[in-house]
Structures
1.
Amino acid sequence: NFRCRSAFKLLEIDDKFRLLQPGWSVVDCGAAPGAWSQVAVLRVNSAGTAEGDAALPHGTVVGIDLLNIPPLDGAHFLSSHDVTDPVTHTKLLELLPNGRAHVILSDMAPNASGFREMDHEKLITMCLSLIDLAEKILQPGGSLVCKYWDGILAHKLQKKLSSVFSSVQTLKPNASRKDSAERYFLARMYRKPVKG
Ligand code: SAM
């Protein structure tokens, strides 16, 4: 039983792209109430519950949210933490094996003001901050999935992502309401930016 219907979006994305492998480390940004983390725990086998092969490696799931996230077997939660705060980044470096994540997931969203343009801008800014987080913790070759609301700044985010990921594509899962502006960027094959 999933805590929230949003689980089906991540299941759909992962069924198609196989981003979450047993043994891998995942950071789930904006994790409350924890449905995406539930999916991640199953797929990376962090609770040792994967069906079939008992010898499958155990991964790591760390979830972060401003809100409280109820405990979940196989996940470590940083409740009352801001994803954009450097203090959170430091804690992530300590929690992740070798300080590295294979995948960063973000289903984060600001509280909607109802002003579409403003909400769009806010969420894009949050997504851009994930690029800084990636620089600190994402394994070369790693992936990022981030939710955004479509609008004028989407291509700016796409361009920034394309500067550090070899492959960037837009996803609209079937489980996402057709009439919503919600989209996801799937960015794969991370390469650290070259400092000039
Ligand atoms: N993926 C979650 C699940 O499946 O249970 C649902 C996530 S919900 C759509 C968005 C979450 O993003 C909210 O719980 C909100 O508190 C969180 N959020 C928004 N801004 C944040 C920030 N700066 N740092 C951490 N979490 C944030």
2.
Amino acid sequence: PSEELLLAAKKALDATRDMVSQYMSGLDPSHDMYHVDRVRRLALDIAKDCIKNGATQIDLELVELAALCHDVGDRKYYQGKETGGQLIETFLNEQKYGKADIVAKIVDHVGFSKELGWNDETDDKEKVQWRNSCLELHAVQDADKLDAIGAFGVLRCAAFSGARNRSLYVPDDKPIENITQEEYLNKNADSSAIGHFHEKLFRLKTMMRTARGKVLANERDRFMQSFVDQIDKEYNIES
Ligand code: ADP
Ligand code: NI
């Protein structure tokens, strides 16, 4: 790419970082700029690993921008009529960034609640084809899932529950095995922090799309498993 293009991309990245930092400052600590930055670093790490393994077509600039923007417009916090992608496309076009539409498309596909609801059998064929082949999307999706599990995942789940004034642990709130998407979405509104581990967080390692993501997810899942074992042990007063 020409020097001019590189400079334009750098300017778009800086402007985006400032805008996102401002946006996240209104949310609770489970979704702050530190979360965004961990996802950005993880996504770039995953994408570089893909490149090392032969996927040389990956555009790291898209990965970085989409990672920065991935939580803009998240429905847990934003009730406006636009999708996150629409907000981002408007912003990046204002910055005269050339690939605003692709970043926007990626942003609208990140979110494991969305991923849980996808059905390749019934969804629009072209869309399914795109989401199953866009490696920049996979890097950001896996990075976001990774920051929801492991030690950071434990902290974030407690922070989110606290922000919504939910219980940490409800003893007779028995984990539901193999909960359906519909049951999950209905139940999500009031689950406890530990309940959320069983409903969602323990499933994430089975949803990883990249090789590097799978390795990191397995390690983080083991940690989370031992954390929940310890919770049960303490509750049952075993020593
Ligand atoms: P998605 O990208 O699908 O929207 P989330 O934003 O729900 O994913 O998950 C991000 C973080 O918010 C996770 O760390 C998760 O622990 C936390 N979180 C989301 N929903 C809940 C919930 N119902 N209870 C506790 N934590 C939650
Ligand atoms: Ni996120």
3.
Amino acid sequence: MKNIVLIGFMGTGKTSVGKILSEKLGFKFIDVDEVIEKTTGMKISEIFSRFGESRFRDIESEVINLITKRDSQVIATGGGVVLRDENMKKLRGNGVIFCLKASENVIFERVKHCKDRPLLQVENPEERIKELFNRRKPLYEKADFCIDTEGLTPEQVAEKIIERL
Ligand code: S3P
């Protein structure tokens, strides 16, 4: 079976939904950020601060290359995976792509206290979310299916995805 790939902005629930979905389908669960942290032995924030975003994006692409060689997995990606077309091509090659959506306000409420998202460690995270959100919106919309997560539990979002399979 093809992989099920979850894309979407930070805080849209890709990891929580992915875990539930993989259990329901009996698929292996892969969290791209977790693989990055395990293979490098560093937290995402440390990779950003020591080597910069562009090195992080290279590592992210290396991990995508590796994991897309297998199938029957649920893959939760990091929010910026859409920034490189080569990542999306690899993921699409043997996967169905679902985008998890939520409004900017809901996203801000969910991530405002999180210290482990380096792109949001700025003076005005709300403004940063708006800016990234608008820039990335057309990229997320390239998914095969978009799922509105607002007002739904991760369990309900997983059910919605299963209905579309
Ligand atoms: C990022 C999202 C993060 C993580 C990194 C960069 C982004 O993942 O990959 O901090 O560019 O949106 P989550 O979407 O799981 O927070």
